Amino acid sequence: MTIDKIPGTDIVWPKPIYRQHELPQDLIKYFLDRKQGLIDDFLRGFSSLEAAANHETRGTATLDRREIGMPIDDTAPFVPTVLDDGSFKFGEEHVSNWLTTGFKNICDNEKEGLVHYRLEPRDSEKAKTFPTAMDITYDLLDHCVMSTYSVIKPNAVLLRHSGPENRNGDYLRIHVPLIVPEGDVFLEANGEEVQFSEGIFGFNNQLLHSSHNYTDKYRLVFIIDLSWDFLKLPHPGKFRPEYHDFAKPFTRKEVYVSGRLSEYYRAISDLYREK
């Protein structure tokens, strides 16, 4: 078996994607048994996924962080709209291309200014609106740090980034596809691609990754971060700056923006080297 190492180093690349057959099958059955409930809860009272996703009780623009003092120009470049000619269009009006509805979110990363803890109370209005997601969150409470619905709008891309909340590498991000339009809808992690139509999968969000929806319809998934110990999978170790410096290219689609994002990742890598 060939060992995949980062060029010029002895560092072995972590496995980027775990497909459905590589995850614990009892967990796959658990999620599949609750899939329809997740869909029904999200759509209840709405005629379409588009109507539900854009309602204030459902979707929040994940990268609109002006309330915490982050300029929109710092985040909007991550979620462009894809035009007919394949080019990207950026700006404030596109920042809502990625919407989430969260139930649990723990982050303790002082190095990147991210320290927060939020768990949706069982008796809240949101809990009553999304009982299936809440049941999953509380069933797996001791093993997860994040759970949320995630929507990507039509013809939109979430550009390459990595998870600053997972620098210790303790969790695998699980995607449970709920409503996936026919067509080219996929996630890429360190150059490896998985279509959302393939089923449930997990990926190591320490690695650069991007999410793509090249269709004219909305995409809905449920995301939950679960510990490697719970999944009985090998722990990949802590984040290394080399994961950014030597990230494998994703050549099928261009996911950098005029060098701007590559400069951003280089800055992050330099920050870790300074520490």
Describe the overall structure.
The chain has 275 residues and is of the alpha+beta class. The protein has one domain (17-274): Jelly Rolls, CATH 2.60.120. The chain has helices at residues 25-43, 49-53, 72-75, 125-129, 131-139, 228-231, 242-245, 260-274, and strands spanning 17-18, 60-61, 81-82, 88-89, 98-109, 114-119, 144-152, 156-161, 171-179, 185-189, 192-195, 201-203, 209-213, 219-227. Strands 1, 2, 5, 6, 7, 9, 12 and 14 form an eight-stranded antiparallel sheet that branches. It has a four-stranded antiparallel sheet with strand order 8-13-10-11, with no helix packed on it. Strands 3-4 form a two-stranded antiparallel ribbon. Helix 1 packs antiparallel against helix 5 (131-139). The radius of gyration is 18 Å and the shape is globular.
